[in-house]
Amino acid sequence: MDTEKEKLTKLLADLKIAKNNLFKHVEGKNTPINIYTHLDADGLSSGAILGKALYREKIPFQITVLRQLEKREIAKILKKVQEYNNFLIFSDFGSGQYLELETELVNKAKFNSFLILDHHIPQNVSNKEEVKLIEQIHEKTKNWHINPYFFGIDGSVEISGAGLCYYFAKCLNQENIDLSPIAIVGAIGDIQNQGLNKSFLGLNTLILEDAMNLGLIEVVNDLNFRSLKPLNEAIAYSTEILLPGLSKDANRTLIFLKTQGILMENSEGNVKTLSELNQDEKQIISTAIIEYASIKLDLEPNKIIKKLIINRYILKEEPAGSELHDAKEFSNLLNACGRTHNSSLGIAIAMGNRKDIYQQSKEALKNYRKSLGESLSWIQENDKIQEKDSIQYFFGEDVIPENIIGTITSMLIFEHIKGVDKSKPIFGLAKRTDEDVYKVSGRAHESIVNQGINLSKAIRDACKQSNLDVLGGGHPPAAGTKIPIEKVELFLENCNIAIRNQLRKK
Ligand code: C5P
Ligand code: C5P
Ligand code: ZN
Questions:
Q1: Rounded CA separation 419/309 (Å)
Q2: For the chain, which residues make up each domain, given as ranges?
Q3: What's the whole-number mean pLDDT along residues 359-388?
Q4: Which of 178, 188, 308, 469 has the fewest CB within 10 Å, making it most exposed?
Q5: How far apart are CA 503 and CA 506, in angstroms?
Q6: The domain 4-187: what is its CATH number?
Q7: 68 CA → ligand 1 middle, Å
């Protein structure tokens, strides 16, 4: 098997071919390159990296953010291509739709001036073990399709869409190495820091190295709580770390912190946030929590430390105490922009724009947090989660809009939320306002993904079994599609069967 560096060398060779194709197309022309990207944090980071790199090359560009590259979007793109003949880049999606793009663009329109930079499992591939099929797709689509699975790289955890765009940008110009922090923000947005204590894996570690070598990112050991919330609230309302007696009780948590001898008030008279504490104070708190948890939960300190202490990725050039200082918070901000119809704000921020734009994005973040909180409470208070033998699911009804159904579904499965069974995948369904379909978001906990659950495959199988001509897919732990309203029961039952079969095969 190739080492990390060998895989990267092969990826870079293909990126170089892609770069030459792009330069050949734009040579002597002043028409813009059309970038199409996904609306989540990774997608916006991808678009921003590409935009910045093209800007530096003085190549005009336009960025369009889509909730997904669906058939009807591809039809619109085809029309535009026939009219303008601009070079196209698809980032953070495109692999799951590559056959569609091949049919519409290459075969029908005889157009091959486009490039897919995506990390999702390609269309018609069930899993990364289908090496032969992946190799065939690589050969067939080499001129316009870059995907990590072609090089034995796991696109679900080892590199994100933004990571691929970063390597492409570096291929255009080595100076784009300063965009590495945004690639890290994108990877965190896709929850790719899945190593021990939230470290990175695979090519993401090499991207992080680039950022660290330039002094742009610093990795610090920190407590696994929100860094910008008053600490007593961050501990009490953590959905990852549950401490009987403190969880859900911010007042008692404040007393607990004060009894450790730490001054918890800042100069403005508010409770300090984690980002306002020094390393010694953090050390005292972590020792106290480890002691508390080992008594209350009867857990070994090692097990607690694994959850309590995490790597925090600090963007050193951003102001301390701002969302942009902590890559996790930065990705949250981008997600908030993308999911509240403010994608252009997110892209501008990731490209380096600040001031007014940053203030506006904070407003989007406030609204986003509010609707996430309300949606989660609504689900819990009204017992909205329904079950079949192998899956659980819920409808967003008129409370949870399509743009946040994926985030809510992620929160239900990855955090400690009452009433959610982690041994079954969960599907969230939100009705679209502009189409008679449900947007479906599926999520599975790591523990069952390790046992062989693959949602990308399950969703594609269920669509096929339900005779649905729709695109769908994603990653083993997170996948999605859209389903006509009248077919939803049939689709859910076929998901149930697909998951049951996957569990049987393990
Ligand atoms: O399209 P994209 O790959 O960018 O979206 C990934 C989605 O899947 C995000 O919503 C992310 O939170 C979720 N995800 C996850 N667990 C993983 C990988 C992705 O929840 N291991
Ligand atoms: O939309 P949602 O966050 O649920 O998507 C989960 C994952 O599935 C993402 O990586 C997304 O890009 C992918 N997906 C896809 N095709 C769809 C819908 C979602 O590849 N039609
Ligand atoms: Zn992504």
A1: 27
A2: 4-187, 382-505
A3: 95
A4: 469
A5: 5
A6: 3.90.1640.30
A7: 13
